[in-house]
């Protein structure tokens, strides 16, 4: 039984959504006058007909093709196999450059222009699938970690890649650490070690033992978080030299899959979000005033969101990324959806339509205007569902508006 | 503080926020308040209400209702083939040496346990029906240690193996090992869903065990992944290609060992069939209900042998050691313990492929394997029960009588045979 007010709101909202949808359609169809669209003021997706040539092939596709239901920009010449990792260039580099590592053993680099056009720039190969990529802080080097147990440093200016790290098992994570008194590359591997490399030397600066295989990690100086197999969770502090800060008992019941650090209002890392294979994300603060209340978990990437009686399908959370400006987060899952959340207001901001493939990776650019997500098979259903012929996509979405935090009541 | 009248009647609105005292509930609930955004069903249910609500515990009948449904859904989800992660031995049971396992369980503790068990059952049902990733560890409540019997394998690892097997043309062995993993996972989930006494007991000990066993268990977990690949190798006898990734060089010693050592290699897919049979029998004898127990138990015992395994990164050895402490199979286990030591040879090869530290580890473990042989008799499975042989006549009498007589109360836990739960 709804009051007249609610009904009126519903009608208004429906109408509003229709308007937005129509705007979106017309915007997609061709050149638009600057300023007439709400998002035109953003630098990314300005106007120009670059769109049509930007590789957005979905216009010609049939309506039953669900590979891009959100009608986002498709990156041209996307990798031939599943994309394991995405990373945008840091603010020190003018423009936006996207790096993607894939299971086809390659790392590709595109320039993403403000018009939305993506220009493939360069590519490097490993001898094994690439599991993680990251940029150096000055934007001149890209570090890539691969199943061939090595990590390489790719100098973009010279387009040369040299090996900088060696492990005894595939290297799962790689991060660049820039401290006031040192800089190094941190690699986490399935050989249960965390190694820190000065790129000039073939011996690691430091080796830290992990309780189990490293599954995911994140670094925001001076904090680093590593989540391992068997629900291991360790926080490191990187000041002076990396050392273990605390081992945390996992707030989740199942295998850890992805982790991302978030910052507080003073731009200091203060906690992290941890995603598991069980469609759940835990928000955990390192030193909260009230741990019982401040730390929480939420369910996501499940079918039947609200209907708890029917059995749900539960999907793994493949990636978590925090918006660099708003502090809201995005999660992508095996169900082929991405969702935006506001962790402070503890609400969901948006969930996308379902893509026909899982979304295996996601990333924000340095100013938070672009949200990139990769649609490719993540092996969540085993080898039977692997189709090497299926095309893998990377989509770019304008993220400035949709990730604005909800106003707290 | 005043006693809360409403709590006594079973209807205190404030629960643990209540300013009055809730007799019996305080100790139990004190430590565990983590209100979650999305509480997982039964846990929350138990905590908010006063504990006396346990009278409305979910009865086993609900399990049977949902199982056929769960089963049929699995048919639907047969897309996963039978993805069952065995990880039996790998997951290493953690047998906390609970000091007084039979100290009178206060009603609150009992309720905690019941709630825990309910939670586990529910989670198992959800896990099976939801099509979520199978090869994951599980713990009944956050901050609790993992329940044994599950391995952690990430999708990337599985995929990498698939690619490797593909290139070396041994896809069938990959499929076989996957199949076995799935079978083992399924079995374990079913075990947990239909909790019988022995499973319950082992679960509870798992949960109480504490987190310290993490390291060695992990070591085995990783060993697990390598061993299960290697399981494929004896089948195929492909050595060179496999050397590339996580591979044990196939060795005859490796193959023969499991026959004598039920626990360790129970996890290996290739050996899944034979050992599991022996495991179940030994399990029943000791009321463990779960074959893989043995490996875990060694870690919780602070025995010299076990402490040798305190360092992480072991694959094969801890499990074999684990076999040691467990009563009768112990003898067999040690018989195989020596063969396992033999296994140490090839095992170390594989470990080198894996990680450098393991080289040293294999050295250590070889030494360590000799230890439990002597200790094995001492450290028996007396975590929860003592075998009858160990009890003196007096103690036996005490256990058998209806009531303990003061001054003669045995200090050891009762033998499992005398329990009638």
What are the salient characteristics of this protein?
heterodimer, A: mainly beta, Methylamine Dehydrogenase, Chain H, four-stranded antiparallel sheet, 3 helices, 28 strands, 41% strand, B: 421 residues, mainly alpha, 0% strand, Znf_CCCH (chain B), metal-binding (chain B), zinc ion binding (chain B), Nucleoporin NUP42 (chain B)
Low-confidence stretches of chain B: 27-103, 210-382
Quaternary state, please? heterodimer
**Mean pLDDT figure of chain B:** 54
CATH architectural name of chain A: 7 Propeller
The helix-strand sequence of chain B is: HHHHHHHHHHHHHHHHHH
Helical/strand content category of chain B: mainly alpha
* CATH class bucket of chain A: Mainly Beta
How many E strands of chain A? 28
* Number of H/I helices of chain A: 3
Q: Which stretches of chain A of 5+ consecutive residues score pLDDT under 50? A: 30-63
Distance between the termini of chain A: 24 Å
Largest interface, with counts of residues having CB < 8 Å to the other chain, equals: A-B, 63 and 61 residues
Family (chain A): Belongs to the WD repeat rae1 family.
Keywords (chain A): Cell cycle, Cell division, Cytoplasm, Mitosis, Nucleus, Repeat, Transport, WD repeat
Pfam family, one (chain A): WD40
GO biological process, one term (chain A): cell division
Question: Short summary of the structure?
Answer:
With 409 residues, chain A is mainly β.
Explain what this protein looks like in three dimensions.
The complex is a heterodimer of chains A (409) and B (421). Chain A is built from 3 helices and 28 strands. With 409 residues, chain A is mostly beta strands. Chain A has one domain (4-398): YVTN repeat-like/Quinoprotein amine dehydrogenase (Methylamine Dehydrogenase, Chain H, 7 Propeller), CATH 2.130.10. In chain A, a hairpin with a 3-residue loop joins strand 19 (269-276) and strand 20. The longest helix of chain A is centred in the first third of the chain and has 26 residues, at 4-29. The radius of gyration of chain A is 21 Å and the shape is globular. The relative contact order of chain A is 0.11. Mean pLDDT of chain B is 54; it is low at 27-103 and 210-382. With 421 residues, chain B is mainly α. Chain B is flat, with a radius of gyration of 23 Å. Chain B has a domain at 112-208.
